[in-house]
Design a protein that fits this description.
alpha/beta, eight-stranded mixed β-sheet, eight-stranded parallel barrel, 37 helices, 32 strands, about 50% helix, about 15% strand, disordered N terminus, binds adenosine-5'-diphosphate, binds magnesium ion
Length: about 900
């Protein structure tokens, strides 16, 4: 397709040029001008330039919208004159007159922002109708029913969108009229008389609700509609949508004025929506729906059940052929799947919209790989086109097939957006939000959804509707925000009044608050909460292909945080290249080990002091001797158990680095809660006396109690106070390494010290550790091969990283603690408390525990530079939760880390995000 001819400046009265027109094979704008013209306007211009059949029209720019709001909701001076001039041009191009009874021009007034926001803003169709132009329309078309149908639609739409009349006010008389023709009557069953009656009923509704007559002057209609479309930019649903999709609020919407073409002129007319490939499963086929004798929104709104697009081939073969050709052309031009809107007016095809199609995660990876195979896009582009959230979705759980067999299936609808959703049924979007805020999981159940339900859909686990097809609002939005959705479940009778739904298939009902399970991959609906199983990564070859391409692009390694061999194996199958954090304390809690740990902790202090006495040449009391014996026995057991754990992990990660962090949390975490123990002892004392054991335990807990345990005796501090923890863990790690190596493996051990704020802490710990290492090396008769490093998670550690690097061969940024300590927030308290409000009120732009804060990233950068200044080959990674967050991964790329480490399930996401970070950085340059 051609680039636009140079757009010679259009004469304008306003101080700026606000208008870009198209028609008769030429356009003043083009496809690259989305910022100014919005996606819809740019697409219409581009299609027109390509010679495709579009109805003539013009775009009022996003700038006009922003200037409108900046001026306190006033159209910029001169804009109206320029609009009228542009209307005159459309009149010339169509040979019709706006408000001209003899040959009326009708237009649609359509919103259209830079980013597509399906259904979030408003469009008015059939504008320009009044009693006179209606008469002309009927006379010209020779179709009275069509004329009145267009008119009642116009009054309803204009009344709702421009005059703020509630939609129900029009729905009620419409439903009543339909009902006269029987229970399942459709809008096409309405007679001319019905439609005429509806028009006067609609007008009466407008009069009652707004206190004014429905405007008859087409130019007044136009003026009001333009302002209403501008206003819809700041409407609640558009705002909610932008917040959820992180779209800027200051972009504004363009307004497109488009000559009406009519799909409701009879059985040789129709309207539809289609995708150039299947956006549900990625199959290469035209995928969509259409309705005969229908207008604009009917397909999307689920008014009637639409026909699959393949049927158009038989019904209107010529229009179908042309549409297929145009679809192929547009896809080739944009090099991506297109989402197309078309209308057929008496056999003639018109294109009304083209945009990049939203798709499911499964379709996204399939289509990206297809298009690389077809030579349409490069591997890099394929990697860029997949969103990290989509990878996440592909690894999401499905219902357990065993549970499905015995589950109570009550209905089956359309599999509109894949995934398994379990939650309590709610029938209202506001209630969904309320319940989710209380910590409930909900499934939103509606007859059909509209853009007003978006906030409820966004928080629900899944969405279930009784009406609407694959391109219905529920389906399109659910796919886009990655929620499982079953749509058009006709077997379900939803009753908002009683807040319940009944299956006509099985007779089963469920009410608000009942658990239901919906399977968006199959369309099946169950009562009760079904168990789920994890998705199978091995069976997703396209995903693996894309991640393979990502691996070629990314610079940073992707490691994982894993504490046992199962997690390690899982992560490795997802592509992890090492363990960046193996937390040893979890091993203390597993499989009945807690009593051993407690037995050591109870005497840890006494025993440690006793050992110091021995070292100083003193003799020990019997009590001291007993304490040492108890302590050493318990520690020896722990050492043996941990060695077994490490052997398992080294085997699972054979040939890959394993960073083991020595004990980190305060010891009281391994003891019973102080209050509970106090209550237990006090109760026992009142009824005959507490056991000696319980009393000693209580005393120990009391003696270890700290005001601020997170800032207390933990991490390297604990190791310095009770060096045996460091010693046994070192021995367990290194003996495991020796054992696995002897068995022919290739274990790569890295020992990491937590919570270092001063280089001397590291120095002292290192000395304990090296004594053990030397002894093991001697005993085993081998050279040990391990690396020694530290976490950087205390601000002072980051600020003195040059000193610390002299003792550490690697740093791993513990960004959970680093964030907590730099902000001075206690994470556990903050996230449950004020942090929510901070984010809501935009005191903070986002939760810094989820996405790395820029100041923390800045602190890391200082540590990176300082660390490299004294040890140029220092290895740098991150093991905080941020290591699996795509936005944070971009920041890690920027500050030059060597790897990110995240939980096993985030590994595939991180592989993709790390590649995208490289591509984004090269684009920046
Ligand atoms: P959205 O952004 O919600 O898709 P649109 O502006 O595309 O809204 O319009 C809503 C519906 O009306 C679409 O189905 C569209 O194809 C149809 N439509 C818009 N303008 C015209 C027109 N000039 N003639 C016929 N149908 C139209
Ligand atoms: Mg549209
Ligand atoms: Mg920490």
């Amino acid at each position: 397709m051609a680039q636009s001819p140079t757009t010679s400046d259009r004469p304008h009265v306003a101080s700026k040029r606000y208008i870009y027109a198209w028609g008769a094979g030429t356009a003043e704008g083009n496809g690259t001008m989305k910022d100014l013209l919005g996606g819809k306007g740019a697409g219409l211009a581009e299609m027109t330039l390509a010679g495709l059949p579009t109805p003539p029209g013009f775009t009022i720019t996003t700038e006009a919208c922003n200037d409108y709001f900046n001026a306190g909701k006033e159209l910029s001076a001169g804009l109206w004159d320029d609009t009228v001039a542009a209307m005159k041009e459309v009149e010339e191009r169509t040979g019709k007159g706006f408000g001209l009874a003899a040959n009326p021009l009708l237009v649609s007034v359509r919103s259209g922002a830079k980013f597509s926001m399906p259904g979030m803003m408003d469009t008015v169709l059939n504008l320009g109708l009044n009693e006179e132009t209606l008469a002309g329309l009927i006379a010209l078309s020779g179709n009275e029913r069509f004329g009145w149908d267009a008119y009642r639609r116009f009054i309803g739409m204009f009344g709702r969108i421009v005059m703020d009349v509630k939609a129900e006010r029009f729905d009620e008389p419409l439903e009543a009229r339909k009902h006269v023709h029987g229970a399942g009557a459709k809008d096409t069953d309405l007679t001319v008389e019905d439609l005429k009656a509806l028009v006067s009923e609609f007008k009466a509704v407008v009069r009652e609700d707004t206190g004014r007559e429905f405007p008859t002057d087409p130019y007044e209609q136009l003026d009001l509609a333009i302002k209403a479309v501008f206003a819809s930019w700041f409407g609640k649903r558009a705002n909610d949508y932008r917040n959820s999709q992180k779209i800027a609020h200051d972009l504004g919407t363009a307004v497109n004025i488009v000559t009406m073409v009519f799909g409701n002129m009879g059985d040789d007319s129709g309207t539809g929506v289609a995708f150039t490939r299947n956006t549900f499963d990625g199959t290469k086929e035209l995928y969509g729906e259409y309705l005969v004798n229908a207008q604009g929104e009917d397909v999307v709104a689920g008014i009637r059940t639409p026909e699959p697009i393949s049927q158009l081939k038989d019904e209107m073969p010529e229009a179908y052929e042309e549409f297929v050709r145009i679809g192929n052309e547009l896809e080739a031009h944009y090099r991506d799947v297109q989402d197309l809107e078309f209308t057929i007016e008496r056999g003639k095809l018109y294109m009304l919209q083209t945009r990049i199609a939203k798709r499911t995660a499964a379709a996204a990876v399939k289509i990206a790989v297809q298009m690389v195979d077809e030579g349409v896009i490069s591997e890099q582009e394929a990697v860029e086109r997949i969103e990290p959230a989509q990878v996440d979705q592909l690894l999401r759980a499905q219902f357990d097939p065993k549970a499905i067999k015995s589950a109570e299936r009550i209905a089956k609808g359309l599999n509109a957006s894949p995934g398994a959703a379990v939650g309590r049924a709610v029938f209202d979007a506001d209630i969904a939000v309320e319940w989710v805020e209380k910590g409930e999981k909900v499934v939103l159940v509606r007859v059909e959804t509209s853009p007003d339900d978006f906030h409820g859909m966004a928080v629900a686990q899944g969405i279930l509707t009784a009406r609407g097809g694959a391109t219905s609002h529920a389906a399109v939005v659910a796919r886009q925000i990655g929620k499982p959705c079953v749509a058009g479940c006709a077997e379900l009778v939803v009753d908002y009044g009683t807040k319940s739904a009944r299956s006509t298939l099985t007779g089963t009902s469920f009410a608000e608050g009942d658990w239901i399970s919906v399977d968006g991959s199959t369309g099946e609906v169950y009562v009760g909460a079904l168990p789920t199983v994890e998705a199978n990564f091995e069976e997703q070859p396209e995903l693996q292909t894309i991640l393979g391409w990502a691996d070629k692009i990314r610079r940073m390694g992707v490691w994982t945080n894993a504490d046992n061999p199962e997690q390690a194996t899982q992560a490795r199958s997802y592509g992890a290249q090492g363990i960046g954090l193996c937390r040893t304390e979890h091993m203390f809690l597993e499989g009945g080990r807690l009593p051993i740990v407690q037995s050591a902790i109870l005497v840890a202090n006494v025993a440690t002091r006793a050992k110091a006495k021995v070292a100083a040449g003193e003799t020990l009391s019997a009590d001291d001797q007993a304490a040492v014996a108890q302590f050493d026995a318990a520690m020896a057991k722990l050492e043996a158990l941990q060695q077994g754990d490490f052997e398992g992990i080294f085997k699972a990660m054979d040939g890959l680095p394993v960073v083991v962090r020595l004990i980190d949390p305060p010891l009281h975490e391994f003891l019973p809660n102080l209050e509970e123990q106090l209550v237990k002892v006090t109760r026992a004392e009142m009824s005959g006396g507490a056991s000696e054991e319980d009393k000693v335990l209580l005393a120990t807990i009391k003696s270890m109690h700290e005001q601020n345990p997170m800032l207390g005796l933990r991490g390297c501090r604990l190791g310095i106070m009770i060096p045996d923890f460091v010693k046994i863990q070192t021995r367990a790690i290194l003996n495991a390494q020796v054992a696995v190596r002897k068995a022919g493996g290739n274990p790569i051990a890295k020992i990491m010290i937590p919570l270092v704020g001063h280089v001397n802490e590291l120095r002292v710990t290192r000395r304990f550790l090296e004594v053990e290492a030397d002894a093991i090396a001697e005993a085993a008769g081998v050279d040990l091969d391990y690396k020694f490093g530290t976490m950087i998670e205390i601000p002072r550690g980051a600020l003195t990283a040059d000193e610390i690097a002299t003792e550490a061969s690697f740093f791993s940024f513990g960004t959970n603690d680093l964030t907590q300590m730099t902000f001075g927030y206690s994470r556990d308290d903050a996230e449950g408390g004020f942090l929510l409000k901070y984010v809501e009120d935009k005191i903070l732009p986002y939760n810094p525990f989820q996405t790395l804060d820029d100041a923390i990233a800045g602190l890391m950068k200082i540590a990176v530079d300082k660390g490299r200044s004294t040890r140029p080959d220092i290895e740098l990674g991150i093991c905080g939760e941020h290591g699996g967050d795509p936005e944070s991964i971009h920041k890690c790329e920027k500050i030059g880390l060597d790897y990110v480490s995240c939980s096993p399930f985030r590994v595939p996401v991180a592989r993709l995000a790390a590649a995208q970070a490289v591509l984004a950085t090269t684009h920046d340059k």
